[in-house]
């Protein structure tokens, strides 16, 4: 009986810490260069406790790489901010200056790594899912001053260790095999139509 109680207690203990671990959340941002511009997407959730306040200043659809600022989603007149939430990570993700995006949709949220702030909707419910998108049409990573790579930040809020991850990807270059296949296909079509004209 004592052994059974010990086993049940151990299972409960492991379950408790398993729940705590699963309660951790992450905000993930992706900056992808395409043939038509640069697209920023963001998703995930965040936990916050004491220190969350509302700022009556506009935010959204912008980046400031050299300052570590990134905000996805449409511009809003005010936002919620959790100060000093970022405990470690780089202070920037490129040498670029401030740049406002074009089209945006979804939720507005982001962070300022240089100031260690996390920005959320002013009426955000801790742990709720977020998703947003912003596009810089005609831009490139070079013109925005964003350096490709993966950036990671750790955060502490509401007694839970959350995290932020930023993935930056350039336009993938076509492989020599792909270019060769396209060239061969075009040459084949040209030959085909020439033969049809001769036999017509």
Report on this model:
With 200 residues, this protein is of the alpha+beta class. The chain has three helices and 14 strands. It has helices spanning 2-23, 141-144, 176-199; strands at 26-33, 37-44, 52-55, 62-64, 69-72, 79-82, 86-88, 99-100, 103-106, 109-112, 117-120, 130-137, 149-157, 160-169. The chain is globular and about 45 Å long.
| H-E order | HEEEEEEEEEEEEHEEH
- Alpha-carbon distance between the two ends: 95 Å
Could you describe the largest sheet, including whether it forms a barrel? 7 strands, mixed
Radius of gyration: 24 Å
**Number of DSSP helices?**
3
Query: Strand tally, please?
Result: 14
Unreliable stretches (pLDDT < 50, length at least 5) are: 1-23
Q: Helix- and strand-based class?
A: alpha+beta
Outline? globular
Percent of residues in helices comes to 25-40%
Strand order of the largest sheet: 7-13-14-1-2-12-9
Précis, in short:
This protein has helices at residues 2-23, 141-144, 176-199, and strands at 26-33, 37-44, 52-55, 62-64, 69-72, 79-82, 86-88, 99-100, 103-106, 109-112, 117-120, 130-137, 149-157, 160-169.
What would the keywords be for this entry?
200 residues, alpha+beta, seven-stranded mixed sheet, 14 strands, globular, disordered N terminus
Topology:
Elements: H1 2-23, E1 26-33, E2 37-44, E3 52-55, E4 62-64, E5 69-72, E6 79-82, E7 86-88, E8 99-100, E9 103-106, E10 109-112, E11 117-120, E12 130-137, H2 141-144, E13 149-157, E14 160-169, H3 176-199
Parallel strand pairs: 1-14
Antiparallel strand pairs: 1-2, 2-12, 3-6, 4-5, 4-8, 5-10, 6-11, 7-13, 9-12, 10-11, 13-14
């Amino acid at each position: 009986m004592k052994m059974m109680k010990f086993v049940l207690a151990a299972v409960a203990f492991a379950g408790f810490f398993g729940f705590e671990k699963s309660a951790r959340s992450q905000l993930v941002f992706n900056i992808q260069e395409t043939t038509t511009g640069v697209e920023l997407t963001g998703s995930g959730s965040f936990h916050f406790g004491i220190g969350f306040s509302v700022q009556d200043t506009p935010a959204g659809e912008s980046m400031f790489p050299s300052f570590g600022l990134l905000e996805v989603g449409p511009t809003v007149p005010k936002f919620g901010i959790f100060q000093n939430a970022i405990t470690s990570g780089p202070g920037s993700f490129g040498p670029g200056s401030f740049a406002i995006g074009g089209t945006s949709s979804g939720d507005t949220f982001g962070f300022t790594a240089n100031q260690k702030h996390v920005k959320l909707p002013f009426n955000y419910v801790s742990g709720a899912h977020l998703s947003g998108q912003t596009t810089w049409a005609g831009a490139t990573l070079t013109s925005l001053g964003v350096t490709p790579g993966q950036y990671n930040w750790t955060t502490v809020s509401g007694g839970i260790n959350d995290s932020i991850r930023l993935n930056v990807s350039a336009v993938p270059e076509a492989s020599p095999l792909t270019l060769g296949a396209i060239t061969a296909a075009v040459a084949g079509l040209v030959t085909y139509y020439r033969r049809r004209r001769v036999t017509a």
